[in-house]
TrEMBL record:
Keyword Nucleotide-binding found: yes
GO CC terms, sorted: mitochondrion
GO molecular-function term, one example from the UniProt record: asparagine-tRNA ligase activity
Domain Aminoacyl-tRNA synthetase class II (D/K/N): start-end pairs: 1-50
Keywords recorded for this protein, A-Z: Aminoacyl-tRNA synthetase, ATP-binding, Ligase, Nucleotide-binding, Protein biosynthesis
Keyword Ligase part of the UniProt annotation: yes
Source species taxonomy: Eukaryota, Metazoa, Ecdysozoa, Arthropoda, Chelicerata
Name of the protein: Putative asparagine--tRNA ligase, mitochondrial
Organism of origin: Nephila pilipes
Stored InterPro entries: Aa-tRNA-synt_II, aa-tRNA-synth_II/BPL/LPL
GO biological process, alphabetically ordered: asparaginyl-tRNA aminoacylation
């Protein structure tokens, strides 16, 4: 079970890195965008409103 799980993780890593490298080579940029939700986290929702 552990060997199978680690094999799956390695395959997923290889596939993810191949896709990442392809787009990087094509001139795309990896951007991590912020997540906007309706949940009020730590009281910060009172300061900002999203319409």
């Amino acid at each position: 079970r552990t060997r199978r799980f680690s094999s799956v993780l390695r395959i997923r890593n290889y596939a993810s890195m191949a896709v990442h490298k392809f787009f990087q080579d094509e001139g795309f940029y990896l951007i991590h965008t912020p997540v906007i939700t309706q949940n009020d986290c730590e009281g910060a929702g009172e300061v900002f409103s999203v319409e």
